[in-house]
Amino acid sequence: MDREIFSTLNELSSRGAPFAIATVIEIEGSSSAKPGSKALIDAAARVILGWVGGGCVENVVRQQAMESIRDGRPRIVSVDLTDEVFGVGMPCGGMMKVYIDPILPPPQLVIAGHGRIAETLALFGKIAGFSVTIADPGATSEAFPTGSRIVSAGFNSGEINVGPDTYVVVATQHKADHLSIKKAIEGGAAYIALVASRTRAQLVFDYLAAAGIDESRLAQANVRAPAGLDIGAETPEEIALSIMSEIVLVRHGGSGRTMLEAKGIQLRRDSETDPQSGVHSQGPAVV
Amino acid sequence: MFDEFLAKVTALRSEGSPFAVATVVRFQPPVSGRPGDKAIIQANGQISGWIGGGCTQPIVVREALRAIEDGKPKLVRIAPGRDSGAEYGVAIYTMTCHGGGGMEIYIEPVLPPPQLLIFGRSLAAQALCKLGNTIGYSVIMVGPGLDRLQFRDANHIVESWDVRSLNLDRETYIVVSTQGEGDEEALEQAVRTNVPYVSFIASPTKAEKIVQFLADRGTAPEALSRVKAPAGLDICALGPEEIAISILAEIILIRRSGKPLHRNLLRKEASATNQAMDPICGMTVDAGGAGYFSEYKGRTYYFCSAGCKQEFDKQPEAHRIPSPPG
Fold first, then answer.
1. Does A202 reach chain B within 8 Å, measured CB to CB?
2. Which residues of A touch B244 (CB under 8 A)?
3. Average pLDDT over residues A78-101
4. Counting C-beta atoms within 10 Å of the first and last residue's C-beta, which end of chain A has fewer, N or C?
């Protein structure tokens, strides 16, 4: 990997911009690109740097790179260069495979509130690869893992931005939680959870309705209250884990039941089991 | 006095024995116990310390043993004569000594943390070790050649697959996370235990092969059928950290015996049209078809039954749903 690509990678990554790396991994026949040729492509399908071949190849790769940034899945693109002989492009012949790897900025976990649930959740969030922000006037750097961003001005300050890649957990024990939930809904957060008693949560929902958030918006926002999967969590740490499990579920899907129940697999039955059901591993899709 | 008490508590904690602490919090003379008097009750019924005389002790021991069993703190009231009535969370006894006094004793169980036994040193094992430590489990890493520095969060490290020397009780949870390094040996040892949870991180195909291998080598089918594979909750976990989260969630689920479903009740109430909440019992009722409703301060309240309506009408102010905040 040459130096220029490397420094651009660092620059893009520290800026938090999504991009994809396209690498030629196999060539049959002749082509202007060689295995190892790379291009960096941004979310608008523009080539920022590098070269994986011109003409039709470039179009396909740019298009697929944009798709991969959107769905977050790496993929291999096979381009049949013999088509080019009969098409409009250059008559090269052969075949080329390009591996496309999307590099997305980590999702944001914003926790409004402090206390044991917030502290543990921040730790779990870091372990699960989130960029963690604690928005609370009472949050101290001693209580939260290093690397978490602390916004003392609170969730409803201008310092907190909510977008479609933001996961919001409101655990303020009442302080302005209705305003926080409203802000999270209006920002289109990927996940919104309210840690509160049933009574309090109902008050917040009543407020949202009174504040003019219509029902379809509310249904779409799918505010989780009570927060987390129902795993019988009792301690603050267990509650934090149930919320983290729900966040993973919202990101990737799943039924929330045990794998054994969900997949209906019984060990020691003669193997007709579906090899696809090992959800734990996922290879790149071949396009 | 307090030093002795604290020393005993510390000793029991470090040896991992369950016990309960009983503290007299209120007294009504004439009784011999005073507020602040403390006793420690062990799981075998042995009591050390002082919380009052012959009539009080058997009651305290009985309730302490119950608390050790169900893990819940409680208040015990021993009252002279018939008590006025039941209160939530309070165990009530009649004082049998004829002094005419009474007392209240707060009993709190102190149980050793659940044990998480992790076989292997894979990335998932590392993530589980960290997560288990964070939620307050006692983490024991198992496997030959484990790097102690890598598992600094572990409470204990066993450098072989043999866990027979450990005290594995019904609060022990085993995850075999070897991922290719000693799968057969680790799972063979894991299923020999008698713990409530043994899971194996592996694809169904691989799990089946290894289970078959162990069956052929003589492991009992009942033992093998307990193995949970695939492990964890179905949250489409990707990567070792998310897999560890899904497995710990399953362990909590089994330990707490909850139901692994969404509890998203309120959202439905808020978003479904024509649904209202009965302010007495909290049930969701169909406002359109509700047979029972009342008007109060310009607002209509719906009820599930005549009983709830009657309760509301008696004292509407106490039950009305407050206006939105802010």
1. yes
2. 127
3. 68
4. N
| Minimum distance, in Å, between the CA of residue B178 and any CA atom of chain A | 15
Mutate to test the interface with B, among A222, A280, A281 (most CBs of B within 10 A): A280
In this prediction, residues A233-244 reach a mean pLDDT of 95
> What CATH code would you report for A108-252?
3.40.50.720
Q: Mutate one of B70, B252, B261 to test the A interface: name it (highest A CB count within 10 A).
A: B252
Q: Do B260 and A129 touch (CB under 8 A)?
A: no
Nearest CA in chain A to B128: A127
pLDDT of residue B85: 62
pLDDT band per the 50, 70, 90 thresholds, residue A266 = low
Q: How far apart are the first and last CA of chain B?
A: 52
pLDDT number for residue B297: 78
Chain B residues with CB-CB distance to A198 below 8 A: 266, 282
Q: How far apart are alpha carbons A138 and A175 in whole angstroms?
A: 11
Q: Which of residues 27-46 of B touch A (CB under 8 A)?
A: none
Close Cβ partners of A140 (under 8 Å, ≥ 6 residues apart): A114, A150
Helices A116-127 and B239-256, packing angle to 10 deg: 140
Q: How many CA atoms, within 13 angstroms, populate the side-chain half-sphere of residue B173?
A: 24
Contact B258 A211 (CB under 8 A): no
Of A198, A255, A268, the CB nearest to B215: A268
Domain ranges in chain A are 2-103, 108-252
CA A119 to CA B182: how far, in whole Å?
36
**A270 CB contacts (<8 Å, ≥6 apart)?**
none
d(CA A45, CA A59): 9
**Which of B211, B245, B260 has its CB closest to that of A241?**
B245
- Which chain B residues touch A119 with a CB distance below 8 Å? none
Residues of chain B short of pLDDT 70, as ranges, are 1, 81-89, 95-100, 258-275, 282-290, 320-326
Residue A127's pLDDT band (cuts 50, 70, 90)? very high
By residue count, chain A amounts to 287
Residue B225 forms contact with A (CB below 8 Å)? yes
pLDDT tens-digit profile of B296-310?
877 778 887 777 888
Q: Cβ of A146 under 8 Å from any chain B Cβ?
A: no
pLDDT per residue as tens digits for the range B82-129: 655 666 667 777 766 656 678 888 999 998 899 999 999 999 999 999
pLDDT for the residue A191: 97
Closest CA to B175 of B221, B132, B218, B239: B132
Q: In chain B, where does DSSP find H-type helix? A: 2-14, 56-70, 123-134, 183-192, 204-216, 221-225, 239-256, 265-271, 306-314, 316-319
Query: How far, in Å, CA of A22 to CA of A59, rounded?
Result: 12
CB contact under 8 A, A256 and B261: yes
- CB atoms B230 and A252 under 8 Å: no
